[in-house]
Amino acid sequence: MELKIKPNKILMWLSYNCLFFSIMLKMLYQTNQNSTIRLLGFGMQAIVLLCYFLEELITLKRKSINCITLILGILVVYQCVITILNDSIYLPYTPIDIFIWPLSVIVYYNFTCHNEMNKNTENKTLIYYFIMCLISVFLIKIHLAGNGNIGQVVFLTYYCLTALPLVVIFVKGKNSRNLCILLCVAISVASTKRTGTIALILGIFVMLVLDAHIQGSLKEKWKRYMYLFIAICIGSGAVLYLENRSGLEIFDRFSKLSTDGGSGRDVIWAITLQAFNVSNLREKIWGHGFQSVYYRLRPGGFSRFSHNSYIEYLYDYGIIGLSLLVLFVLFLIIIEIKFIREKNKYAPVMGMLLIITIFLSAFSYFFEESNIIQPIAVAYGIILGQAYKERKRYEN
Length: 396
Prior knowledge:
Shape: globular
Distance between the termini: 31 Å
Structural class: mainly alpha
Radius of gyration: 21 Å
């Protein structure tokens, strides 16, 4: 019997594993600042990017192009052109940040339109997620002790949030899936990251409500709503316990939202928008180039992003770049509305993805670099591809 090895499946297996390896290495780097670990992390991302290019070349003749993949393809080409014209290439960041997250959506969409993910994906995803949660504990400990680059250290705990939808997609066991959700809530609360905590709680709420909505019988719906109520009670009790016992000052951090401007985000936004307003017409339309806010504008005298992907894209890639990004998000929302109307089984996790996307892109750095967005992009590609494949199967 001849054993047939499909190159595209090997490439997807390798890219999926290297994606998580790169994430874990980035998180580990913040625990000891070892430059070797950092280089290995970039190496894993380079392998992911190489796998994507090879996968696209292998399957060039049977692409399943839709509005999402078309917009992302145009966005990637546009960013490359603007980056070259503005001489804003910074290696290794430029190719990684421009290509990886859009290609993650495109490649996984094209692959899952015609193939199934590897049978061991569930176990691997679960193991990787537990490792990420374990590393997050050390990152939070460093953060609370006030050591190292405090903001960047705890920022990487967001990976537990953005990888959670992949756990929901692949992990079939309810107990294992619920344990991952509880771990994510605990990590998010302990990290004192307000944006992430709000996105997670609201995302879980939307997922549970939509899950109840797509259930067939009224009895099942009420059962789901009961689980939702119990989950809210347990979650509220856990937050109160942590607030009283651990000294994390969770509620104190939230109460300062109206006075600290989101840790100074309002000031950064104002500086970036003012710089855009005084730019010439060409720069307003086409932008200033790859991550120009970080490398050239440097709001407040520091190299940092705008903490809002839409303001960042407006300055970096102009009105055209921002329009393409907004169009991509709008199409995702339209697809989710269609899922909800059809009571598609992917509606709940898609709802969670959108909540996370909207919050992190509005109050953090999300689309402008292929960092915490990576697992989210993979999840979008898988959901869209599998939904397309099942729709075609149903039609036939």
